[in-house]
Design goal:
By secondary structure, this protein is mainly alpha-helical. It has four helices and two strands, in the order H-E-H-H-E-H. A two-stranded antiparallel ribbon has the order 1-2. Helix 1 packs antiparallel against helix 4. The longest helix has 24 residues. It is globular, with a radius of gyration of 13 Å. It starts with a helix and ends in a 5-residue tail after the last helix. The relative contact order is 0.19. The N terminus is likely disordered.
Length: 76
Amino acid sequence: MTDDADASVAGEPDTQALDDLLDDIFRAQERVTQAEIYRRAVAAELPPDLLARIDALPEGEYSVDEASDLLGGSIG
């Protein structure tokens, strides 16, 4: 049971970092490219697992809801 609690706690910072990034990126724009999301994630020094998820997105433009859904964030 302790492993489950540790996993959920370990997952929270990733979600928060992702939510913060998406909130910042989409503050003034409705749609953003995968490349821009990745560039901003690298600049924000997000953890490697988040960078890998963003890098795996197909090229194209995303709304905040689409990006959050695909990346596992809670914004939207």
